[in-house]
Amino acid sequence: MFTTGPIGVFDSGYGGLTILNKFRELLPQYDYIYLGDNARTPYGTRSFEVVYEFTLQAVRKLFEFGCPLVILACNTASAKALRSIQQNDLPHIDPHRRVLGVIRPTVECIGGLTQSRHIGLLATAGTVKSESYPLEIHKLYPDIKVTAVACPLWVPLVENNEYDSPGADYFVKKYLDQLLGQDPEIDTIILGCTHYPLLIDKIRQFTPSHIHLIAQGEYVAHSLKDYLMRHPEIKSRCTANGTCEFLTTESIEKFQESAATFLHEKVRVRSIVLE
Predict the structure, then answer these.
(1) How far apart are CA 47 and CA 230, in angstroms?
(2) In sequence order, which residues have a C-beta less than 8 Å from that of residue 100 and are 6 or more positions away?
(3) pTM, full prediction
(4) Fewer beta carbons within 10 angstroms: which end of the chain, N or C?
(5) Interhelix angle for 16-26 vs 216-230, to 10°?
């Protein structure tokens, strides 16, 4: 008998809540369980080995909660851990469960958006260093040029609730100017971190109007819907009572306060340990 349960959504911190939000908007019928490894965030500056170890611990924990499907709603985890977990760990843990990431769904949409075939990527240092986006883009669109810039101060701006402050302007403009200075022909920019949608109004303010901005949530949500339609054997195991549970490795109070910034609602959360 195969396990049935909620769809698991994992992130190193709070940014994955922007992905979860879009899941709940598009697919409200399903049960979800969100796990934030807030005690060990950020992952963006950590090594491949550490990110893989932490992400695998989170996946195992969500499997313990009965999840037949886990989404790594974290670009760093998707870049540094997804492939190893899919190829090396899932066959031994449970070959009938699935783990998916956010990079491939984001990449799939760009072919129809860019006219110049010049793409910009704004992301954490870890995601940029992994080169996961250029690799995935060139698999599908070998003619596209990708220019990437790391934005190490954007996540702290969001998590300290400063993303809409006048002080954020300098750091938003700084990285955009750096990106467009390296390649003025860019006409599409991927926001390759799940925190960045909270900065999107600021980003638009300093981005030329002809440039497409790709925030991941909507694309990943539609990709999940399509995936479930194409894989009825997984869909049938995802319970559908419209519930959502939240887990954190940090303090409950801190998670509730930050989650309100991302979700605009009060949530009930439990604290757990990953090991």
Answers:
(1) 34
(2) 69, 70, 71, 72, 82, 224, 227
(3) 0.93
(4) N
(5) 50
| Residue linked to tokens 């409950």 | 252
CB-based contacts of 152: which residues, under 8 Å, 6+ apart?
44, 45, 124, 125
Residue 63, token pair as written in the block: 């499997």
pLDDT value, residue 131: 94
Q: Which of 238, 227, 259, 236 is nearest to 101 (CA)?
A: 227
pLDDT < 50 regions, the chain: none
CB of 106 closer than 8 Å to CB of 220: yes
**CA gyration radius for the chain?**
18
- Which is nearest to 7 in space by CA: 35, 36, 33? 33
d(CA 190, CA 176): 12
Catalytic positions: 74, 193
Residue 192 phi, psi dihedral angles, 5° rounding: -90, 40
DSSP 206-256: TS-TTSEEE-HHHHHHHHHHHHHHH-HHHHTTB--S--EEEEESS-HHHHH
Beta bridge partners of 9: 34, 71
Contact indicator for 24, 16 with CB cutoff of 8 Å: no
Q: How many Cα atoms occupy the beta-carbon half-sphere of 114 within 13 Å? A: 23
Q: How many Å apart are CA 41 and CA 245, to the nearest integer?
A: 20
Are 206 and 175 spatial neighbours (Cβ–Cβ below 8 Å)? Answer: no
